[in-house]
Specification:
4-stranded antiparallel β-sheet; 10 strands; Rossmann fold; alpha/beta; 6-stranded mixed β-sheet; 7 helices
Length: about 220
């Protein structure tokens, strides 16, 4: 089976004085359908940078990136955006919920991007509210939720449209341990049901839910 993601010689750098500072060096990586990958390494190793390249939020890099055999490195921004919306769910460390929208509206947004008809949207949102046990929160705004509840909504928003792959940046970073375990158990269930997951984490415990650990150090991949 072809990998979902194939990276060849990915590099990311910034001009610094007369030279350049590298954040990522010569990253080569394949991620297959059904993988549950944890990206680990010390602060400043390039973990989140790599995740944002995978998520197509960052386009200022060198090298080759194939997503479902599409050459992301050659696509125009609009085409990348479409690919992202159709296939990728992203969980941000700082939730990234839209403050002026209710929980219900935050969950509906990814479906409207994909032109899901209204009736179908309603049933998909109802299903996710139920699965995440946040039905009672649907009319609240993010500011009325605890950090743990906001992160649950963030995860629910990432999975609502049944993406091919979920990318999660320190998904339990702001949660207390019981909430963190709840989120990780949920990822495990999604992965068992076939969703590919890539998470950035500092936590050995979180990594133990997955099947594969990629180690970064100083921008280099030093272990897989």
């Amino acid at each position: 089976m072809d990998p979902i993601i194939r990276l060849a010689n990915i590099e990311k750098s910034y001009p610094f004085g007369v030279g350049r500072t590298y954040v990522l060096r010569r990253i080569a990586l394949e991620i297959r359908e059904g993988d549950f990958v944890s990206i680990m390494g010390p602060s400043g190793a390039g973990k989140s940078t790599l995740l944002h390249i995978l998520g197509m939020h960052d386009s200022a890099w060198e090298g080759e990136y194939y997503f479902l055999d599409q050459p992301v490195h050659r696509l125009k921004p609009k085409q990348r955006g479409e690919l992202h919306k159709q296939h990728i769910g992203f969980v941000f460390q700082s939730y990234h919920l839209l403050d002026n929208l209710t929980v219900y509206e935050n969950l509906e947004i990814p479906l409207s991007y994909r032109n899901v008809p209204r009736k179908e949207r309603e049933s998909m949102v109802a299903d996710v509210l139920d699965r995440f046990q946040i039905v009672g929160k649907k009319d609240l705004y993010p500011s009325q939720l605890s950090g743990g509840q906001q992160q649950l909504v963030g995860v629910a928003r990432a999975v609502i449209a049944h993406p091919k792959i979920i990318l999660a940046d320190e998904p339990t970073g702001n949660l207390h341990s019981a909430q963190g375990r709840e989120i990780m158990a949920l990822f495990k269930r999604l992965n068992d049901a076939g969703t590919t997951i890539v998470q950035v984490t500092h936590s050995e415990e979180n990594a133990s839910y997955g099947s594969r650990v990629i180690q970064l150090r100083d921008g280099w991949m030093v272990g897989d």
